[in-house]
Structures are given as structure tokens and as C-alpha cells.
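Regression test case RT-17, inverse folding.

Input:
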């Protein structure tokens, strides 16, 4: 009976201590996102020359290459004015030019005209801007999160999430992105 109890206790001990040995290099969180395949739903619209076009051509260009993705909330005016523009400048200044920068902007469908009238003129970003009116990008990839560290990430040329973390709140993440891209 004592041996059975010991085996039971050992089994519980090993099962409780079995955690993921992989952590995200930027945030020391257990990795639940690394290696996830990322795809762009065809319902996304690309902002181009002050209007909306089908995003298929932009999506086809970035697939099969390394690229950065940042999810921006359009209901947050500060996110558009500062976050989007600063991230784009930071990525353009520090990452190789062949690494595409994609900004998925979450916005309600009824707010699109307001976006173009009030917010779009302030956008200086040269990356690809995609509008998502129903969180289809985040839901389709099972990455819906309010955690700011999960809203900026690098996708490798296999189409899998390779690294995530917000370089604005955690500057060491930018170094991690640069190092990861230099090995690819």
C-alpha cells in the first residue's frame, strides 16, 4: 500500500512540474503562441492611397517571407497617432528593408468614414495597413488578446509566429527581433 501511495505522489509531482520549457525570449512568459501558423483572412481590406482595396495582392507579397505584424486598435486615437507611426519608424530604422511591416487595424465598420476623415491623415506609416472590422484576423488565428505583448509579433517565412513582444514597452524585444532576423 505504501508503494502505491509513493507512486501516486510521484506521479502527481512529475505532472505538476511538467511545464513548458520554452519561453518567449521577450517576455519570459510560457510560450503558447510560438509556432502558431498565421494566415490573413481574405475579408481584410487594405488601406491604399486614401481608399480601401482588396488585400489579396498585399497578402500574396508577404507570404513566404519574414514580416512583422502589429495589431492596432482604431478606437484608441493615441494608438493611431503614436503607436502605429512610432512602431513603423522603429521597424524601418532597425529591421532589414525586405522585412514587411503589417499593421492590422481593428475598427468597427460604421467608423470607417470617421477613420479616413479624422485619423488617416495623421498616419505616416509606410507599412501595409489592413482594416479588420470584425476581429477576423485575431479570431481566425486564435490570438485574440488584450495583452500588449501579444499584439506585436514576427512571422517567419514558413508562416509561423516566431517571436512576440512589444518593443515600445519592452525595448529588449527589438534586439530579439533583430537577432532572430539575422539568423534567418
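Golden output:
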Amino acid at each position: 500500500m505504501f508503494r502505491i501511495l509513493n507512486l501516486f505522489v510521484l506521479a502527481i509531482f512529475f505532472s505538476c512540474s511538467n511545464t513548458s520549457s520554452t519561453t518567449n525570449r521577450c517576455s519570459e512568459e510560457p510560450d503558447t503562441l510560438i509556432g502558431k501558423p498565421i494566415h490573413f483572412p481574405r475579408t481584410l481590406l487594405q488601406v491604399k492611397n486614401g481608399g480601401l482595396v482588396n488585400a489579396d495582392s498585399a497578402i500574396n507579397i508577404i507570404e513566404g517571407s519574414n514580416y512583422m505584424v502589429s495589431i492596432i486598435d482604431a478606437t484608441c486615437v493615441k494608438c493611431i497617432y503614436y503607436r502605429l507611426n512610432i512602431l513603423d519608424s522603429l521597424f524601418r530604422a532597425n529591421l532589414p528593408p525586405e522585412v514587411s511591416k503589417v499593421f492590422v487595424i481593428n475598427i468597427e465598420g460604421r467608423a470607417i468614414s470617421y477613420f479616413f476623415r479624422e485619423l488617416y491623415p495623421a498616419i505616416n506609416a509606410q507599412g501595409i495597413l489592413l482594416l479588420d472590422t470584425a476581429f477576423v484576423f485575431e479570431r481566425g488565428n486564435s490570438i485574440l488578446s488584450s495583452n500588449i505583448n501579444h499584439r506585436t509579433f514576427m512571422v517567419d517565412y514558413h508562416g509561423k509566429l516566431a517571436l512576440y513582444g512589444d518593443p515600445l514597452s519592452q525595448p529588449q524585444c527589438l534586439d530579439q527581433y533583430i537577432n532572430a532576423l539575422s539568423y534567418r
